[in-house]
## 1
Amino acid sequence: MHIWVDADACPKVIKEILYRAVERLNIPMTLVANKKIFVPSSPLMDLIVVAAGADVADREIVERMQPDDLVITADIPLAADVIDKAGHALNPRGTFYSEANVKQHLTMRNFMDDLRGSGVVTGGPPVFSNSDRMAFANQLDRFLTKQLKESQNV
C-alpha cells in the first residue's frame, strides 16, 4: 500500500499526522503539489511537483496510484476516480469515500457548483476544526490498522 496526498489544499496539521503515521508504520507516501512544499527527510516520503493548472495533481495521482492505495484529498472528483481504480479515498475532515457514497458526494458537489454558477452565494466550507483533525486521525488509524492486519493474514 502507498499513501498519496493531494497536497496543495491539504491542511498542514493533516500532513503532520500523516508524517508521523508513515514513520511509525513504515508505509511509503508521496505528496503531489504544484509548488515545492516541505516534506521531512525520510526514505518513506517524497514530493512530486507538477505544473500549475486545474486537476494536474489529480491526474498525476490517478495515473500513478495502484488498487488498494490510499489517497488523501478533499477533491470529490479525484476521490471518485480513486474509487473507480479500486483505491481508497479519505477527506482531511475524516470522511471516507466509498463506492456506496462517492456518487452522492459528487452529485451534491456538482449541485452546489451549479448554484454558485447561477449567482447563488452558498458560502465556503466551515473552518477546519480540532474535531475535524481528530476525525481524520481516527479514520486514518482505523484504516491503516485494518490494512496492516489484512496484509499480515495474507
## 2
Amino acid sequence: MKIWVDADACPNVIKEILYRAAKRLQIQLTLVANAPLQVPGSPYVEWVQVRSGFDVADNYIVQQMSPGELVITADIPLAANAIAKGGYVLSPRGEFYDKGNIRERLSMRNFMESLRNSGIETGGPAAMSSRDRETFANQLDRFLTKYKQ
C-alpha cells in the first residue's frame, strides 16, 4: 500500500494527518510537488520534486502509482486518471471519488472552468474547516483500516 499526495495544493493540516497515519501504520507516503517541501524525517515519508509545468506533478503520480494505491488530491482530472488506473482517490475535504461519481465531478469542473473562461466570477472553494479536517481524518482512517486487513 502506498499513498500519493498532490502536495502543491494540499493543505498543511492534511499533510500532518497523513504524516501521522504513515508513521502509525507504517505505510509509504510520497508527496509530489514542483516546489521544495519540508517533510518529517521518517522512513515512511518521502517527497519528490518535479519540474514546474502544467500537470507535471499529476502526470508523475499517475505514471508511478500502481492499482490499489491511494491518491490524495482535489484535482478532478488527476482523480479521474488515478481511478482509471485502478487507484483510490480521497480529496483533502474527505470525499472519496470513484467510478460512480467522478464523471459528474469532472463535468461540473469543466462547466465551471468554461464559466470562468467566459469572464464569469465563480468564486473559489470555501476555507478548510475543522469539520473538513475531521471528515478527512475519519475517511482516511476507515480506508486504511479496511485496506490493512
## 3
Amino acid sequence: MSSLPKLAVVDVPDDLARPRDFGATYGAGVRRALVLGGGGIVFVAWQLAYLRALEERGVHLGDADRIVGTSAGSVVATLVASGRLRRAHFEIETLAKVPKLIAAMAPAQQLQRSQQVALERFWTADNCRPETVQAIGHVALAAVTPEVGTLPRSLRLVLALRRWPSPALHITAVDAFTGERCVIAETAGVPVHKAAAASSSVPGLFAPQPILDRRCMDGGAGGSGTHPDLVAGAERALVLALADRGDIGIATAEPGGFVRDVDALRASGTSVEVRTSRLPSDLMLMDPANVPTALMLGADQGAEDASGIRAFWT
C-alpha cells in the first residue's frame, strides 16, 4: 500500500485578525469616525434614507477619517466612502417597488434545515465566548446555502466599484473556523464587494466567504453589531445601530453589551453620538416587503436629527 504524498503547507500570514479591545485605542489619531451597524436589508434601507436625509440638509459624513461597517453597515459604509449615497438611495427606492428583485439578489426565504440550524444557533447566542462563535461558524460552514458567489455578485452590482473606495473604510467579519474578529481594510488587497459580502454573510442564510486564506461570516457574529472599539481614541464618533437590545442577549451580543461598548468608547476619550432606529422590533429584517417602511422611517428620523448631528460633526 503506497503512502500518501507529503504536501508542503505554505503559511501565508495576514493581519486581518484583530481582538476586540478598547484599550488598544485603534482610533488614535482619527479626528472624525462613522460607525454603521448591522441589521439586514431592512436596515440597509433605513441607513441609506437616514444618511441621505442628513446629506440633503448639509451634513456630509463621507469626509470621516474612519468609517467602520458591519454586516448591513458594511454595504452602506462602502457607499458613503465612495460618495455614492445619493445614487444608492435612488436605486433602493426604485427596487423597493419590486421586492421580488431584492429577494432574488439576497435570497433568504425557504431555508433548508441545515440553514435553519445555523441561523438559530447564531440568533439565540447570548455570548461571544470563543467556543460559541466557533460553533456558529462551523454550522455556517456546513449549511447548504446558495452558491458562495451569489452574494458577492449581487453586491458587485449594487456597489459598482472596481477599487477600494477609501483608506478610511474598515469592514468587519468573523473567521468561521477560528472565530477571530477580522478587520478588512484597503491594505488587505481584497475587492470591496467581497469584503462586504463576507461581513454580510449571516450564518445559515449565506455561505461564509473566502477572504485570503480564511472563510469569513457576518461581522455581527463577533459579539457586536457595530464594533466601536475600532474607533476608540478618536476625537469624535457617530454610531448608527439598529437598536439597543438592553438586557437581551442576541446574535452573540451579550446582555447590556451595546451600552458597555458605548461607555468604553467614551472612556477612551472619544466624544460619542449614538442614534438607533425606530424600526419596530418585530419587523423581519430580511423581508424585502419591509424596505418601504424602513425608507420612510429613516428619512423622517434623519430630518429630525440633522441639526443635532451637524452641530456634533462640525
